[in-house]
Specification:
seven-stranded parallel sheet, 166 residues, single chain, 6 helices, alpha/beta, Alpha/beta knot
Amino acid sequence: MSFEHVRHRPPRELQQPREIIIVCAPLRSRVNLSRIARAAGCCGITQIIATGRPMKLDPEIARDAAETIELQQRRSIVPVLKQLRSEGYQLVGLEQTTDSQDMHHYAFQRKTALVVGNERTGLTDDILQELHDTVEIPVWGLPYSYNAATATCMALYEYCRQFPDG
């Protein structure tokens, strides 16, 4: 068997739009936001809500997603979560908590708001109070948790694995 490299294979078509929104607690780094945007773009996700201070995507990192992702900026995350809840989104925090579920066994709902914490402080208590669920990604070594952008990419992959057609 031989393999030939195929560069930039066209994206697969989704049979329906993805119903997942990424909501970021105030992040410290636009690099992490740009990495999240790039992964979201690859997954066919069209919307990210970033809270806290305004932040721009780095087009060198986000690549084509810098043009295809709708990046909304909001000052505070709690009102965003309350609004998404009223719109019927399942609010799922990506965090290690006392009652978090192992992502390997978590069944996402199609209409999900994936809530990503700050790189240092994670999801604060006021944010945790608003969530329906928290999921965590197991670690088998040190450090004790993944980088915010890396964990988000892993969670997006799992969501897309469960809903491959959109």
